[in-house]
Structure formats: structure tokens, C-alpha cells
């Protein structure tokens, strides 16, 4: 039987022991063997701390985010084989989708967060700058940097893919090297996904390692700077947390443990209401999804005492309709437990529950295309705890399978009290349409819950469900649930980052943080900052404007245009007892006037105003005052752009408005969307003619078989097609892919060198020379390019068909030609 290989210190290594046999949970056949015997864990940790740390920490947050996206796309293309392995763990197609594509989705989410909200630097400035001296020459702020250690991630068996990827999403984005230790059961699926991550070549050396089997003594080698993330039983978690190597070395420890999550049915949610039906459906789903093997599953069903019978009957019927069996069968709605060992453990916990509470539903024992002897199947089981404040077994014992306990309550106070008897849960849910009941219950139970999920008819359609942790929200819980906090959007990165206070002068803080600090030196130049591309803008680039004297007419006119007739701007007789001496200019007029002073009217790389932050007005401006503006590039934020948007970044500009006494009257931060420099040649006749001057008959292409003249005539043909001469009669790209291809014209990715033009194979005439020599071809090409420019000035709405990109308008044809010309000019080393 094949052994699963481990991936440590950059190599795939097989253990040298007997290992642990891994079985198909559905039919009992052996699938693989996991074995870690003989691995040098000390070397693995050292490799992560050195090679992994160096490579990951030197990347920017933005680049790590881009890396996550590329890895997720790579895995998504190979998902079919993961599903085939997932069925062997007992998971249905829906179970597998949550695990596999839910894991990829976490990578996508964190990639998006990084590209929208994180800097293009290896560190992250956290919070505002603090002025800690009277004159502002001494400032303080905080930066976050990757911990100089390795993260050991111990995952449970229930989510072999998501469990790995949700932890890696934050550690990799934070820049911390990780060692993944999945549960042996289902680790053959983790191993397959991990192999593809490595084969993609998208992760830097040392970023991730994989230990597929028993952890051995790996935790003996952790040290200060390392971290351990554990998902599993609270008993095991507490043992690990107290290990001398962890407790004695200040090793960061995050635990996400089992928890007796509850769902509360509101007093208002009687049979016949949408909420009653939603409650039954939600409980049924949480008992049967992944065969109840979810750390977020509903274990305690808290119901008004007068509705116990109604809930029991409705839930029993719903569970009866849930067919159990082979996950590959279309009829199956619930698969098996992950293995016989887990089955025996769940049976042991069921017997403990039976000692104090009554088993009121044991399910149908029919299986679809499977049998109990070979597979680890279990029917859903529902218990009743009739005295939940006296019988504590339901609040102490978790059977990690399709098992839950029904219990009554009288009023909201009791419902919240029962919820908290779980001594710390990952999630608790309330199903009710009574806002007062929900409000009272939720805040009272919140101290013992990591997440509270409220469901009613208004949110049901778009609700993600009781049991679904989301990347943008925290996953974890207090007490029994481990006290951990995973994901939670960007907050999830803080576990892996070191926070450091930075103090110094404005110039020093600007140099360190790459964010301009007030009082630092400004860089003035003749070129207007708004005429610079994103790459050209430097933090500290500044502009001092001319002055503008505010008049009474300005104030009156702005009142009329804006309809802002607030008395301080319009009524001099009403100013007694106010802070104003006379009618004052509107704050938004000052901001607008400032914009009028600092903008550049000439078209340039600045695309649009993107937003306004932290606008404050410090002193009134009266008619007769003269304002001057200092505009300074404060911060640059790289930005991922999709679809038909110009590749761009966001520049934050500090706007300081002063009066004639050099007093600051207004400070604001404006955001502009600034285009990035295109790597493609402009459709400028002089530049193109200059590039073609170096093209000779003897010039050899860097790739492909075209001669210089064939290349020029090929480009000329593309120009003529864009004029409709001739009109292309066919697009070779399938309709469903056309939008994606057209979107690609807008990005800055170059055309692939090996792209086979589909029309060339069919129409060999395109390669037949039409001009007598190269010089004649060049001249004809330039003439037609000039015609193209004039044509679209005269016919800006014209559209013509392209063989690859479909029907294109003026903007798209220009983008296509720029890419196409650059592609072939580089082919012949002309640019």
C-alpha cells in the first residue's frame, strides 16, 4: 500500500516505520498509509525559521495576497480529483464542496482583503501617528512585522482541505512559514491538495511543509517566535498548551476546540411560522452535514417548553427524509463518519448521554448502496434532557457525530442561561422574529460564545447558516471552545505579527513607514504631481499652490449652488453668542476651493477622485482671507483591478490649507485613482516610426518564424481589419469566453509568445508578401495607422470585428493594437 510522503526541508520524504493504515470510510478498503517515523523535526523547524522566513517576510503583503489568489486558481482547476478522494472520507458532494471549495474561497477572500486594504510593503503600519511633543518634532506609531518563527498547524480530521487552508490563508499572508500537520484520517486528501500547491511553483521555498501522520516529538523543538495552532479536542489542546516547550518559551498558542453549540427557538416561533420551519431545517442540516462531524454543529436544541413535542415530531420527520449511505449515490444526503475508530468514540459518548437523558429518536437504519459492517455509518440520534438545569451531561459531553439533545426553557433569561452552560462555544444561534427576544438573549449569552447567528424570514434567503465560519469574521470561542481567534478578516493576521512602537522625527517616521508625516520634508518639482503615473509618485512629492482671496460673493454663490443656507454663512445678525465674528465661508467651499487650486486641468494619469478621509476645519475663513494649499503625496496603495478597468493604484494626498497668517485652517486626506504606466507602446506615429527605423531585412526574430516584412504586413492587416477593410466575418473565440478575452485587453499582461493566431492556419495568404520590399511595407503600415487614428476621431462610435476578441470599439482597438505592436516589436528587439 502506498505511503503518503511528507514534505519537509524542501523534499518529499517517506517515513521509515510501519505507519498508520488509512481506510475508506464508506467500504472499509485501505486507501494509504501515513508515516512520519524517522523525520528530523528539529531540522524541519529550523528550515522554516531560516529559509521560509527569509523568503516570505521579504515579500510585501500585496504580493502575498496575489500569491494566495494564484494558488487558489491553480487548485480550483484540479478540484475534480479532490472530490474523488473526499468521497472516501465519507463526505457527500455538498460536504466536499464546503471543505474543498470553501478552502479555496478562504484563500480568495484573504487575497482580496490584502489587495484592497494592505500595503505594498513587507510591514504594516497599524493605527494613526501620535503627536508626542508640543511642536510635533517627535512622533510615534506602530508597525506590524512577521514573527521570526515557524507556525505549526495541527488540524482535525473533519475538514482535510478547509482546515489546512483557513490557517494557511492568514499565516502565509502574514509572511510566516508553516508546517501543516493534518489528522492522519483523511490526510490522503490533504496530501493531494498540498502536492499541487508545491507543484504550482507559486509558493517560495520554505513557505510550507507537511507532516502526514503522527506528530512525534515535533513540539519539543518549538521556541520563542514560533506559534502553534491547534484544532481538536479541548482535552488534547490543554495538554499541548501546558507542554514545557510551549509554556516555557512564550510560544504563541491558538486553540479551536470542540464545543457544545446551541440553537435557540424563540418564544414567538410557533408551528406554522416561517421561523419554526427554518429552525427545523437548520437543526436537521447541522446534525447531518459531514455526518455531524463539525466543531460548529448544533449539539443542544433549546426550545420553549410548550413546543418540545412539536419540535420533536417535526425534526424526526425531517431526519427520516435524510437518506444515509454511499456519498457517490445521488440519493444520499448524509455520508459516514470518517472511520471505525471515530464511530466507536461517538458510541462511547452516546452511552454517556444515555445514562442521564432519554434517546427519543434513533433514525432509520436503511443505507443507500452501503452497509454498516464495512462502512462507518451512523443514523442521526436525538436525546431529550427534560431537566437541563439539573442534568448536566448534555452540557458536558459532546458526541462528535449526528447527535443532538433537545431541552426546554421558560423565558429568554432561561434560554440564555442554558446557552451559557456549554462553558464556552464557537457559535450559538437564535431563530426568532421577535427583535426584543433576540436582543435580550444575544447580549446575555455573548460572553460564552465566539459567534451569534440570528436567523429569521428576512435573512434566510442569503444566510450562510449556523455552522459556516466566514473568513471575514472571527472563528473561535471562549472557555471550552479554546479561547482562540482564527480568521476574522485582517484581525486574523495579528496572531502571526509582532507589533512594535516606532518613535522619531517626522522625517524618520516617513522614511520608516513610507507614509508622509506632517512636518516632514516635502519634495517639490516642476512636474505637477497629478501628471505622474502611480509608479512615478513618491511619498513626499508636493505642490504649493497660488493663493486665492475669498470674497463675500464666493460665500453667497456657494450657498446658492449648494443650497446650504446655514445661518453662519448667510445671516450676520444671528452670530451673537457663536464662535464667528462675521459670516464665514463654508467648510466645503474651502475644500472645493483647495481642489480648484491644486488640481491639474490637463489630462494625465489621475483617473478620478476616489474618496476623502479625516477632514477637519480648524479656523474660520472670512471674506478677505487668502488661502494657499500644500498638497503632499502621503501614501501609495497598490490595487488589484478586474475587468475593463485601467490598471491603477490609490494615492492618498495630504491637503493642508493655510491662511495669509500661515495658520492651518483645514487638513484633509484625499484619495485619487492613478493609472499605472503601461508597458505597451503608445499609438504615437513618431515613436512607432522611430522604433521601425532599426528593423532591417536581416533582423532575426527572438521567437517565431516571421520575417521582418511578414511581421509588418501582419500588423498592417490587423490595422485594416480594425477599419473594417475587410470586415472580419468570424470570431474564433467561443461566445462564453469572449468577455474574459475582451477584459484581458485592459490589463498589463503581455501577449504570450506561443499564442497560435487561429486565422493564420486557415488563411495562408496573410503570410504572403503584398509589398515589393520591407521599406514599402513600413510606409504602407504607417499610412494606414495614420488613417486608423483619423478614422476613430471622425467615427468614435464605430465597432469592427476582431478574429480573437470579437466586436471591438475605439478604446478596445487602441488597447489591442498597443499590445499587438509591442508583442511583435519585442519579437524583433525594436523596443
UniProtKB/TrEMBL annotation:
Domain Aldehyde dehydrogenase stretches: 12-499
Keyword tRNA-binding belongs to the record: no
Gene3D superfamilies assigned: Aldehyde Dehydrogenase, Chain A, domain 1, Aldehyde Dehydrogenase, Chain A, domain 2, Hotdog Thioesterase
Top-level taxonomic group: Bacteria
Residue ranges annotated for the MaoC-like domain, each copy included: 539-639
Pfam family, one: Aldedh
Renumbered residue ranges of the record's region Disordered: 460-484
Keywords assigned: Oxidoreductase
Protein name: Phenylacetic acid degradation bifunctional protein PaaZ
Organism for this UniProt entry: Chryseobacterium salviniae
Primary gene name: paaZ
Amino acid at each position: 500500500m502506498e505511503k503518503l510522503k511528507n514534505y519537509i526541508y524542501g523534499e518529499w520524504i517517506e517515513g521509515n516505520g510501519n505507519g498508520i493504515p488509512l481506510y475508506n470510510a464508506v467500504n472499509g478498503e485501505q486507501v494509504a498509509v501515513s508515516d512520519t517515523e524517522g523525520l528530523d523535526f528539529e531540522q524541519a523547524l529550523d528550515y522554516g525559521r531560516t529559509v521560509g522566513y527569509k523568503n516570505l517576510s521579504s515579500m510585501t503583503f500585496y504580493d502575498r495576497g496575489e500569491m494566495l489568489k494564484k494558488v487558489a486558481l491553480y487548485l480550483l482547476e484540479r478540484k475534480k480529483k479532490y472530490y474523488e478522494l473526499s468521497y472516501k472520507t465519507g463526505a457527500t458532494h455538498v460536504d466536499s464542496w464546503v471543505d474543498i471549495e470553501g478552502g479555496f474561497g478562504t484563500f480568495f477572500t484573504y487575497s482580496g482583503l490584502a489587495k484592497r486594504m494592505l500595503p505594498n510593503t513587507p510591514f504594516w503600519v497599524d493605527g494613526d501617528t501620535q503627536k508626542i511633543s508640543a511642536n510635533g518634532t517627535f512622533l510615534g506609531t506602530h508597525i506590524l512585522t512577521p514573527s521570526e518563527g515557524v507556525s505549526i498547524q495541527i488540524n482535525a480530521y473533519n475538514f482535510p482541505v478547509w482546515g489546512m487552508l483557513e490557517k494557511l490563508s492568514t499565516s502565509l499572508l502574514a509572511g510566516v512559514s508553516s508546517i501543516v500537520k493534518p489528522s492522519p484520517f483523511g490526510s490522503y486528501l490533504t496530501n493531494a491538495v498540498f502536492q499541487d500547491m508545491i507543484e504550482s511553483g507559486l509558493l517560495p521555498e520554505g513557505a510550507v511543509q507537511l507532516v502526514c501522520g503522527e506528530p512525534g516529538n515535533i513540539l519539543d523543538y518549538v521556541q520563542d517566535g514560533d506559534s502553534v495552532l491547534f484544532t481538536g479536542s479541548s482535552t488534547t489542546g490543554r495538554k499541548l498548551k501546558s507542554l514545557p516547550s510551549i509554556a516555557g518559551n512564550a510560544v504563541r498558542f491558538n486553540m479551536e476546540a470542540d464545543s457544545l453549540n446551541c440553537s435557540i427557538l424563540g418564544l414567538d416561533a410557533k408551528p406554522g411560522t416561517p421561523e419554526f420551519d427554518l429552525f427545523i431545517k437548520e437543526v436537521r442540516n447541522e446534525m447531518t452535514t459531514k455526518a455531524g462531524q463539525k466543531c460548529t454543529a448544533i449539539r443542544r436544541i433549546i426550545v420553549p417548553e410548550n413546543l418540545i413535542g412539536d419540535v420533536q415530531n417535526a425534526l424526526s420527520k425531517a431526519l427520516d427524509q435524510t437518506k444515509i449511505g454511499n456519498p457517490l449515490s445521488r440519493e444520499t444526503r448524509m455520508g459516514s463518519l470518517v472511520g471505525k475508530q471515530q464511530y466507536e468514540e461517538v458510541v462511547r459518548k452516546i452511552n454517556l448521554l444515555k445514562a442521564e437523558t432519554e434517546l427519543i429518536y434513533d433514525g432509520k437504519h436503511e443505507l443507500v448502496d452501503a452497509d454498516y459492517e464495512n462502512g462507518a455509518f451512523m443514523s442521526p440520534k436525538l436525546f431529550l434532557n427534560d431537566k437541563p438545569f439539573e442534568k448536566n451531561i448534555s452540557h458536558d459531553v459532546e458526541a462528535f457525530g449526528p447527535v443532538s439533545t433537545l431541552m426546554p426553557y421558560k423565558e429568554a433569561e432561561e434560554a440564555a442561561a442554558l446557552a451559557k452552560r456549554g462553558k464556552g462555544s464557537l457559535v450559538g444561534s437564535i431563530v426568532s422574529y421577535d427583535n426584543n427576544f433576540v436582543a435580550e438573549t444575544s447580549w446575555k449569552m455573548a460572553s460564552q460564545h465566539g459567534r451569534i447567528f440570528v436567523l429569521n424570514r428576512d435573512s434566510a434567503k442569503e444566510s450562510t447558516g449556523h455552522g459556516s465560519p466566514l473568513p471575514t469574521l472571527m472563528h473561535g470561542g471562549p472557555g471550552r471552545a479554546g479561547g482562540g481567534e482564527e480568521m476574522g478578516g485582517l484581525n486574523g493576521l495579528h496572531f502571526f505579527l509582532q507589533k512594535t512602537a516606532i518613535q522619531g522625527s517626522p522625517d524618520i517616521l516617513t522614511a520608516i513607514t513610507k507614509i508622509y508625516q506632517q512636518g516632514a520634508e516635502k519634495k517639490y518639482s516642476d512636474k505637477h504631481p497629478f501628471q505622474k503615473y502611480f509608479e512615478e509618485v513618491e511619498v513626499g512629492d508636493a505642490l504649493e499652490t497660488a493663493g486665492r482671496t475669498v470674497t463675500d460673493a464666493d460665500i453667497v454663490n456657494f450657498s446658492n449652488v449648494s443650497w446650504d443656507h446655514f445661518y453662519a454663512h448667510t445671516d450676520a445678525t444671528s452670530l451673537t453668542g457663536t464662535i464667528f465674528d462675521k459670516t464665514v465661508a463654508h467648510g466645503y467651499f474651502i475644500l472645493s476651493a483647495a481642489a480648484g487650486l491644486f488640481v491639474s486641468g490637463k489630462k494625465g494619469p489621475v483617473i478620478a477622485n476616489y474618496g476623502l478621509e479625516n477632514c477637519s476645519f480648524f479656523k474660520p475663513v472670512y471674506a478677505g482671507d487668502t488661502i494657499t494649499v500644500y498638497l503632499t503625496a502621503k501614501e501609495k496603495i497598490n490595487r488589484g483591478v478586474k475587468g475593463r478597468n485601467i490598471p491603477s493604484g490609490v494615492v492618498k494626498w495630504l491637503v493642508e490649507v493655510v491662511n495669509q497668517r500661515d495658520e492651518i485652517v483645514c487638513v484633509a486626506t484625499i484619495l485619487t485613482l492613478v493609472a499605472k504606466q503601461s508597458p505597451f507602446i503608445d499609438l504615437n506615429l513618431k515613436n512607432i516610426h522611430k522604433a521601425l527605423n532599426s528593423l532591417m531585412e536581416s533582423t532575426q526574430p527572438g521567437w517565431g518564424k516571421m520575417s521582418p516584412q511578414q511581421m509588418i504586413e501582419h500588423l498592417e492587416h490587423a490595422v485594416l481589419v480594425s477599419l473594417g477593410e475587410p470586415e472580419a466575418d468570424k470570431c474564433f473565440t467561443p461566445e462564453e469566453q469572449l468577455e474574459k478575452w475582451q477584459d484581458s485587453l485592459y490589463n498589463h499582461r503581455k501577449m504570450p509568445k506561443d499564442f497560435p493566431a487561429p486565422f493564420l492556419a486557415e488563411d495562408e495568404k496573410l503570410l504572403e508578401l503584398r509589398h515589393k520590399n520591407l521599406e514599402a511595407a513600413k510606409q504602407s503600415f504607417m499610412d494606414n495607422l495614420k488613417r486608423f487614428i483619423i478614422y476613430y476621431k471622425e467615427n468614435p462610435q464605430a465597432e469592427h470585428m476582431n478574429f480573437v476578441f470579437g466586436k471591438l470599439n475605439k478604446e478596445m482597438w487602441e488597447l489591442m493594437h498597443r499590445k499587438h505592436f509591442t508583442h511583435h516589436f519585442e519579437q524583433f528587439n525594436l523596443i
